[in-house]
Specification:
Elements: E1 5-8, E2 10-13, E3 18-21, H1 24-36, E4 41-43, H2 58-62, E5 70-72, H3 87-101
Parallel strand pairs: 1-4
Antiparallel strand pairs: 1-5, 2-3
Length: 102
């Protein structure tokens, strides 16, 4: 926490059949966009791919032949009664999303 927004290259479950995996070129574009706009970012992963869980809508969007990355805010104890995020990470995600849409 406090190291910026999280970029996750691949998500899903059941190995390659149920995941999305962004191209290196697309990841490079997003990294450059964030770096050029002063957005702190870090890499992350969503659980054990073959154990299931950790899925987002990315795999469904990727199924439409759209380059897809998961970008978000790191959360400690997600879906627990008490979750924890860092204010700096929320701000960096805001800056990253703003840069992307501009």
């Amino acid at each position: 926490m406090n190291h910026g927004a999280v970029i996750v290259k691949y998500v899903g479950s059941r190995g390659k059949s149920g995941t999305s995996d962004a191209s290196a070129e697309f990841v490079g574009e997003i990294r450059k966009l964030f770096d050029d706009n002063g957005v702190l970012w870090q890499t992350g992963e969503l659980g054990k791919v073959d154990a299931g869980g950790g899925g987002t809508v990315a795999m469904f969007i990727a199924g439409l032949n759209v380059d897809t990355l998961d970008v978000g805010i790191p959360v400690l104890s997600m879906h627990a009664p008490m979750e924890l995020t860092a204010k700096a990470d929320v701000y960096m995600a805001y800056k990253g999303f703003k840069a992307f849409y501009e």
